Amino acid sequence: MMWYRETPFVLGGPQQAHLKVRNLSAGYGAFLVLRNLHFEVKPGLTVILGPNGAGKTTLLKALMGLIPRQGIVLLDGDDLPEKTHEIVKAGVTLVAEGRQLFPQMTVLENLELGGWLCDKHERARRIEQVLADFPKLRERAHQLAGTMSGGEQQMVAVARAMMSAPRLLMLDEPSLGLAPKMVDELLAIARRIADNGTTVLMVEQNVKKALAVADRGYVLERGALVASGPARLLERSSVVREAYLGADDVDKTTAADAVARRRKSATV
Ligand SMILES: Nc1ncnc2c1ncn2[C@@H]1O[C@H](COP(=O)(O)OP(=O)(O)OP(=O)(O)O)[C@@H](O)[C@H]1O
């Protein structure tokens, strides 16, 4: 059985979010990580690539209101609120790195928490929809989340995020630490979610696989965007080819490998 049902799913909606970002700066206290970023997240699937420490997680945290930000962020033309719960209400949800499930709670209980903003009836309706969209989770509904495999937990984390019926879903390295088959399933799910009407912004280290499912991409290095464009063109661009896709086995190439290689070649 697939993790995600074949027929179109119900959550998400026809109203796809469009995010416009101008002069975004963010960091930790006096340590500025992101400096004056300009980018756009259009309906579909956008991926942000970049090496460890480039600021990818910081970028998602800033958009989610988890750290202060400066600059202009417009969601469908309106200012994105600054407080996290208002950002969720505006239709934006983040699946953080490390999934952050409640391990001592069941799958069902974790899903219920994803619907904290809606009333009991709406929550029950969304649970039904999510379980229809992720049929394998129905079988696991009463399993403690902490007893599931990493890949299964990531599915729960994505399903829980869908409980808020987001218009913009942000995923922070969803494939981290997963077996190749599970990586393929997860990226296919991200693609399906985008196809079904929820805009997706995804940070990924798995460059080749991420570009294969994405519509557009950006490359972030040391807090600055150094390349952008349609995924197909980005894959062929010299920045990405030289930095990220130069290894013998490109499927295994991660941004970390790429930077190590880049540094090595820079010192030769
Ligand atoms: N809570 C924090 N306090 C201070 N500095 C931080 C904090 N979190 C991250 N940083 C720093 O901000 C920079 C960017 O980190 P960030 O986690 O955004 O990078 P990343 O591109 O997501 O990398 P990774 O792929 O390793 O997750 C790094 O130099 C990191 O050390």
UniProtKB/TrEMBL annotation:
Keywords: Amino-acid transport, ATP-binding, Cell membrane, Membrane, Nucleotide-binding, Transport. GO terms for molecular function: ATP binding; ATP hydrolysis activity; branched-chain amino acid transmembrane transporter activity. PROSITE patterns: ABC_TRANSPORTER_1, ABC_TRANSPORTER_2. GO terms for biological process: L-amino acid transport. Residues 19-247 form the ABC transporter domain. Pfam families: ABC_tran. InterPro entries: AAA+_ATPase, ABC_transporter-like_ATP-bd, ABC_transporter-like_CS, BCAA_Transport_ATP-bd_LivF, P-loop_NTPase. It comes from the Bacteria. Belongs to the ABC transporter superfamily. This is Amino acid transport ATP-binding protein LivF. It comes from Tepidimonas ignava.
